[in-house]
Specification:
The chain is 36% helix and 26% strand. It is built from 14 helices and 20 strands. The strands form 5 sheets. It has an 8-stranded mixed sheet, sandwiched between helices. A 4-stranded antiparallel sheet has the order 13-18-20-19, with helices on both faces. The chain is globular and about 75 Å long.
């Protein structure tokens, strides 16, 4: 019997009715002859509610204690789902990350999976049970709970599929697959039947929320086939695999990201090693920076700027303030009224007209481009946040046409 790993997001298990719907899908997979491992996220807004509780208790509390609190959400989901499946007449066992053998590093709130010991999972599957595992978390070498970062239940599911040699990893969300743009912004977005790991990784890195980028990178590394499906409707999903071809489409997607902020540092000493020091201090806190830019001034200093995800905004401020003398700058400003618009295409290198088409669409719409970044598979523009939805629509229409 083959193993299938399924993952359901928070909206899919937000109510008892939705949990019962998910339970029926799980049972259907088991009755089709598969051994089923299920990873669940916290229900609905549970994680946000727990974060509020943490801040009420102590806004400056340790990340260790915060992770201890946040891990409860997923444990509630798997325990409830096990009880629902048992009520429906099927054997089911809920496991915490520790019980499932998921080991992680000790970077609380942003840990990495280091190893998964599978004997307990295999034992439960061999006993005929559906195994439900709390996503988003691991156990450190010291026996502590460490969370893997927001959206990391996807990563848990893909990691489990890899170590269990699963037939596939099914990711169930509130959309029917991967689209050429966010259908909530672009109503005429196209659902893609398949997409390559690399293209999906670029879309996730650009801000697409369908899958966590770490999960896609892990799937690519270990060759795990992912299928993105809707938990709300019976429909064909999107297959993510090594190579994918969609006839007639040379652009995979148009991705918008409103959750960024730009830092501008002034009075930086113009000397070798500035960016080495910047990347080094950011890397220690696992902060990724993008859209790096510098301008040399007549007084021998330079201004430098970069963008970060808004969820790392406070962390970035702390790093800068703690390393003023290391980085040798006079001050900094933060602009949260910016957004990133990206076009992803595996054929960027062989279609040099793509950047021109993107810029033309924005020009025709009267949208100013602040800065551009290009690679072999992606072109991204920083624009005003107020223009991002309109920009996404006009750029999508430029490449995919205006659907009736």
């Amino acid at each position: 019997m083959s193993i299938i790993v399924q993952k359901y997001g928070g909206s899919s298990v937000a109510t008892i009715e939705r949990m019962e719907n998910v339970a029926r899908r799980i049972i259907s997979a088991k009755e089709a002859g598969h051994k089923v491992v299920v990873v669940l996220s916290a229900r609905g807004d549970t994680t946000d509610d727990l974060l509020k509780l943490a801040n009420e208790a102590n806004p400056n509390g340790s990340n260790r204690e915060r992770d201890m609190l946040l891990s409860v959400g997923e444990q509630i989901s798997v325990a409830m789902m096990a009880m629902i499946l048992q009520r429906m007449g099927h054997g089911a066992k809920s496991l915490t990350a520790r019980q499932a053998g998921i080991m992680s590093t000790s970077e609380y709130s942003n840990a990495r999976i280091t190893n998964i010991d599978t004997p307990r999972i295999i034992m439960e599957l061999d006993a005929g049970n559906i195994v439900l595992i709390a996503g988003f978390q691991g156990e450190t070498a010291h026996g502590d709970v460490a969370t893997l970062g927001r959206g990391a239940s996807d990563t848990t599911a893909v990691a489990l599929a890899a170590v269990l040699n699963a037939k596939r990893c099914e990711i169930y969300t509130d959309v029917e697959g991967v689209y050429s743009a966010d259908p909530r912004i672009v109503p005429n977005a196209l659902k893609l039947p398949e997409i390559s790991y690399f293209e999906m990784l670029e879309m996730a890195a650009s801000g697409a929320k369908v899958l966590a980028s770490r999960s896609v990178g892990l799937a690519r590394k270990y060759g795990v086939q992912i299928v993105v499906l809707s938990s709300m409707a019976e429909a064909e999903g999107t297959v993510i695999k090594e190579e994918a071809k969609v006839e007639g489409i040379f652009v995979s997607g148009v991705v918008s990201n409103k959750n960024i902020a730009r830092f501008s540092l002034s009075g930086v000493k113009d000397a070798p090693g500035v960016w080495f020091k910047m990347f080094s201090v950011m890397n220690k806190k696992d902060i990724a920076i993008d859209f790096v830019y510098q301008r040399k001034l007549a007084d021998g200093t330079k201004d430098i700027s970069f963008t970060v995800e808004t969820e790392r905004l406070q962390d970035t401020k702390s790093v800068l303030e703690e390393n003023v003398h290391v980085l040798n700058f006079l001050g900094y400003k933060v602009n949260e009224n910016v957004a990133k618009l990206s076009v992803v295409s595996s054929g960027m290198a062989t279609n040099p007209g793509i950047p021109a088409m993107m810029c033309e669409a924005l020009f025709d719409a009267g949208i100013n481009i602040d800065s551009l970044s290009t690679s072999e598979t992606r072109i991204s523009a920083i624009i005003d946040k107020k223009d991002i939805d309109k920009g996404t629509q006009v750029v999508h229409d430029k490449f995919f046409g205006v659907m009736p």
